[in-house]
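Appendix B. Chain record.
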Amino acid sequence: MLIGSAAKAQDCFARIELNKRTVYVQQPFRITVRVLTKTWYTAPLDFDNIQIPNSFILPFDRTFSSMFTVGNVQYAGLEFYYIVFPYKAGTFTIPPIHIVATTPPEGSSESRKVTLTTAPQKIIVKDVPPSLKKESWFVAKDVSISESWNKPMNNIKVGDVITRTITINAKGTLPQFIPEIAKEKPAWASIYPDEAELDDTRDENDANGRRIESITYLLEKAGKYQVPQIKVTWWNPNNSRIYSKITAPLSINIKENPNLGILTTLKDSLQAQQKNQPQNKAEKKTFLVLGIPWYWFTLYALTAISILYILIRLTIRMVKWLLLKRRHYLQSEYYSFLKFMRLPINSNKLIAALYNWWDKSKIVNRSPSVMATFKKENENEMIDELQNIYGHKYKNGDSSLVNTEEKKFKSNIKKYRNDKHDLSNEKTANISSDQQLWNI
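Structure tokens predicted for this chain:
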């Protein structure tokens, strides 16, 4: 059954799908959310993690993209899903999931954010069937059981301490749901169970779990015996059938031990270890944010904020430094000289630009007047050129002759600057004279 909410203006909508509407306790069901658009997505989806009462939820929130056909119309789709394990019977509501998608409307290239909300869904969780109440209820797709011993079993005697390790691997369930194995006390030994180890072995598509239990045996009687077999029973939801597996039978021969005085000491030591052993409490579920534990998410977020803060501070410093360098450059003698050299000789601003550079220049023994300085240094050619500019520009108004002298005049000014200018205190960049000036 598919239910969706649409954003018509964006031609974008979301659909939610449950692969089952009725399940048994511990039986997993899948919630699939699909977001469809007629155009394309320009950013990842942003969506909530759902909360369902009395359930374990595994978010598989890595989105998968594909094309879908709805009513003979092609849509680009992004899909993610959750696997839910209810642990209590009852009727529960899957709350709405809020999704933010970034996609352009059909016929436009400008992306917009649209908020989509899925409709709430009902799920019925049934109690364990009465016929299976006597069994250890356990839901899984497949189960394997294996065992190992910490020493060879062909040469054991009274007083020996041996450890048996049973490993149960289950597919399609959580390790918290794998039941504790039945620990039958044999007539030939005392037993001391260790705390069980639960491992989450989920893959990219499904939940899997492993339960490892160790039992220590203190051998107390000589003779030939059968080691109690371990049986695990589960219900497969794929075909609604009960399955069982059992460890292989094992016969042992416990030999006599003349040094039985050590038996009491070993027994007291093992009992003391049992008293000090922590109780196997149910593991508290870690709160997840975007599919990762909250403490890792907090660490990643703080690290990202710190890096962002450092980058912003460095950027501000770099911008201030560049602005300062630019301000110094615009106030430099070199920049004033470049502005003067780029003005045409018939420009009304030429003389003003000449004196703007002259005031900032480091010409040795210069006076405030350019003409006076040229006369003092007997720069006759420069004097003639400057008088020619003054005469033709401000007296005759004929610029044709002036233009013919532009190249020569500027070349002489440049040579004069190179010969007379004191560059020892200059800290401006070595910028070529033909570069493009910045706009001011």
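Further analysis of this model is presented in Appendix C.
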